[in-house]
Amino acid sequence: MLRTNREKLVKLSVIGEVASPTLKNVYNISATGVPCILPGVGGITYNLRVGDFACGWEADHVEPCVSTTNKENDARSGSAANTAYTVFSCVGNQAIVASGDAKGDMGTVTGKHGGVEHVLIDFKSETLDRLLIGDKIQIKAYGTGLKLLDFPEIKLVNMDPCLLDAINPQVSGENLKVPVTHLIPANLMGSGLGVNQVNSGDYDIQLFDDSLVKQFGLEDLRLGDLVAIIDADHSYGRIYRKDAISIGVVVHANCVTAGHGPGVTSLMTSAKGKIIPQITQKANLASLLKLRADI
Fold first, then answer.
1. Could you tell me if 140 and 11 are in contact, meaning their C-beta atoms sit under 8 angstroms apart?
2. CATH tag, 155-288
3. What is the pLDDT, as a whole number, of residue 154?
4. C-alpha 93: how far from its chain's center?
5. 90: left (phi over 0), alpha (psi -120 to 50) or beta
6. Which of 13, 99, 104, 210 has an alpha carbon 20 to 30 Å from 130's alpha carbon atom?
């Protein structure tokens, strides 16, 4: 087992609620100039979970399973409560329904979506049928500050230690071999660039170039896939850096709008390229965290 500082991490309660779907504009204009009216962010998505394909849906930015946010607000703090909720929640964290007919049911954090600032949580189908918009969900936020003690040039972010254990990176000299489903060149990455931190939100894989989609096999991307972004450094924001490498998880489905696509929440990064991606189709949260029996 890799040496970490997990015994020094604080496990903190944060709480959100099931967020309503939102629609700022009735029409979205696609990258080919076609007006579209499509389901998007928010709500309870009954037929889309981690492990399902990220592309092919009649939707734009749709979030799998349950979208949550913290709506606490006052004149002094603004959205500080939701900032804490999105930053401190980590992929792999345990979530528990705290109100409503599904009270007591357990779920798992699977990603974060920027812009709307949602935390995405996977629940079993029987829980989805009992949930209502507005139901409270508490997360045991654990993982912020997680470090690899013997690999200072590899930075971890947004990751519960249980996910690190499930990924089980293998030591190869000064490098770590990490399982992923796909390699993605940094020039395909779009919306989400330009931020100065990666402890919340995501950024999108643009899938508008058919030749590159075919070259890198991106037509079969799935929600929950671990992917390696080549020449991308996520140490202090998302930037292009030759030979750097970052690992993230696909968190929301494809989009029709220019500059957008399936979203990726950061998990690991090395500005010095100390991560060696290993292709395997089992590198998906549904398998790694045993979220579904059929995956």
1. yes
2. 2.102.30.10
3. 98
4. 12
5. beta
6. 13
